[in-house]
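chain below, 89 aa
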Amino acid sequence: MGIDAFDTYATGPDGSLVHVDVRVPEGTKTEAVTRIIREFAGASDPEIETQKRRGKSRDKMFLSDLVVNEARMRGFCIVPLQPPRRAAA
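prediction:
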């Protein structure tokens, strides 16, 4: 099973900035990733910026059994890249 990764930033319900990779089955559309992160962020109308990563298929975490199994079972896997932080005012 191929996996695509989307480098994603979103605003949380308290205005914090969330930075995650969304790992999905290969071929998943950006619109589907946006829906996933909108639900994950928990804000009523979060700002979302997402971009498909290129050339990362050899990254060990990218293809770990945990990520592949989660993406297969749930249709996605969210990998936090840093703790949420407050957005600049």
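The first strand starts at residue 3 and ends at 11. The CA atoms of residues 57 and 63 lie 7 Å apart.
thats it, cya
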